[in-house]
Amino acid sequence: FPVTISDVNGCSNTLSTTVQVNPLPVATVGVTPASGIICLKDSSTLTATGANNYTWDNGVLNGQAFNPGSTRSYTVIGTDVNGCKATVSKTIQVLPLPNVWISMVPDESIVCANTNVVLGGNGAVSYSWDNGVVNGQTFNPTTTRNYTVVGTGANGCKNTVVRTIEVLPQPLIKAIASDTSICEGGSIKLSASGGIAYT
Fold first, then answer.
1. Which of 37, 45, 61, 197 meets the CB 3.0–4.6 Å disulfide criterion with 32?
2. How far is residue 160's CA from residue 106's CA, in Å, rounded to a whole number?
3. Residues 49-73: pLDDT tens digits?
4. pTM for this structure?
5. Neighbours of 7 (CB within 10 A)
6. Which of 162, 46, 153, 150 has the alpha carbon at shortest distance from 95?
């Protein structure tokens, strides 16, 4: 840019200066997973490139995994060595988890040994149980343990629920007769032990 300078005597001189215009950095943002769609409680990573340092909003650190709590847009300012800045935004979509719960027949968490029960997952589209349980089918729990079901919703997100079944042992009943052989018309005394009531 030329500039002409004049003094009070009418003398003048012309000088030129050069102004260098630096381009803005071409910043881009990569997201993991690449779709930018995650299930609630899953983690995601935002990584900006194309500049020298990066400043994110919403507490994000460049290239470090975090857990978004809801669908939102994240903005980064990338600054290059010349101090020029570029702003880029990326949206992460957070899908809800299915509201999974467990039904049980009989509807009790404490059962006696040799009691048939049915466990059913509810609130999702499909269910995967541990310990050999099949959703909605009868089985016979033999010991006290936890039963875990993973329910998958229509959006592919999964939620896990646990139910404990306590199995009580059967009483060890012993029947006692006062005699094992009697004559017709005679009587004997029958008694039992091992329980608190007898029929």
1. 45
2. 22
3. 999 999 999 999 999 999 999 999 9
4. 0.74
5. 8
6. 153
